[in-house]
Amino acid sequence: MNLWLLFICVGITTFILRAAFIEMHGLWKISPLLQRALQYVPISVLAALIAPAVFILNAEGFLPFELPPLLAASIATLTAWRFRNTFYSLLAGMGSLLLLQNILPLITFITQLFCDGVKC
Amino acid sequence: MTLLFYAGSAQMATLQLLQDQALPIMIILTTIVINLRFLMYSAALSSTLHPLPLRWRWPMIYMISDQSFALSMLQRQQSGDRINLWFMAGTAVLMWLVWQLSVLLGVIAGARIPASWSLEFAIPLSFLAILVPAIRNFAGLSAAVTGAIVAILARSLPYNSGLILASICGISIGLFIESWHYNYSKDTQ
Q: What ipTM describes this predicted complex?
């Protein structure tokens, strides 16, 4: 099937989703319950988007999840909580991830500088 | 693709499915499920965007994204329940521009960037940076935790329905705790 046609279809359906309640505003009534529920939409959706990306399954190790993304996300969370600044928490998160991901080979490298070849 | 529907997670999923040579109808259904959250955003934004004339409304609708939505909601909370349309437009336009430019950059230079840089982690990080300030009470916290747990447990559900399920669970728990809290404080008065 034509790729462009597919993308156009997806584009249209996505726009309909985005526009639905906005266009129908006078016609569809939003009940008070729905209004209260809507406040939790961004929180739940964001959390649901974040979680699978942070808690990546790991076969080995004593934790079922991979450590660097977990720790990096925790650091980012603490930074966001303490400083309430998007940029800082992004910086802290990416920084700690790269640090943690590279620190293990780095430690290995440094110890090998002092040791003789493979063994110590 | 990115110009036509501008929805990152759906774009990724579409790419995946195209590589797997899935049926076109399956791809469309999957993107609908992934993008159902825009229906929720639509409901949240309806009172604000509905009064706008069509030539402003439809571009604004097109540019609704997770980040600009979350930022606008945050700004509304912090400034007493009114959404500043200029703020919203600003975040939306900037987000859209940056996104499209980045995709362009990615097309040109993407293959050269080493995978060890883990740049894809920036996506959930940016969500996290918005999520944390948005949690203001215990109900919000429980909604987030519930959403996260269900999303992890349901990650292998087909067509990304885990996302929808997790959102619904999160919203339900949030509502439940909120009304429990309200009743509790009424009883103790």
A: 0.71
